[in-house]
Amino acid sequence: MILDTSFLIDLFDGRQNAFEKGVELTEARIVQRVPSPVVMELSYGAAFGDEGEQRAVQNALQMYPIVQQDETIAHRAGNLLAQADVAAGGESGIDMIDPMIAAVADHYDEPVLTANVDDFEALGVGVEPY
Length: 130
Hints:
The chain has helices at about 5-10, 15-25, 35-45, 50-60, 70-85, 95-110, 115-120, and strands spanning about 1-5, 35, 65, 110-115, 125-130. By secondary structure, it is mostly helical. The strands form two sheets. A three-stranded parallel beta sheet has the order 1-4-5. The two termini are about 10 Å apart.
């Protein structure tokens, strides 16, 4: 399962639906992967918080394997975004981070766990809402 930023933020904020989904995945022994662009988004957000929040994000991320972006994933991300833009008849409105996350999902053939269902569906990867 590929974890999107929206899920991790909701999990860190103690949202019940995210917590329950995390427990479900853990009990089912489903591997939960975090793409490195998610680490960037979380680090960016935490930089505006205090040291405790920054430390909490770093500690939480140690629980998951981090998937680094490589050339293959980067090419796939560009292709997924281009396909979404073509399907939308121009600019799809999808930001540049989501295709990188979607490419990891495509690479591992795993869905993205997210609250941002529409963008990931437009990118053509499996989605798991929570």
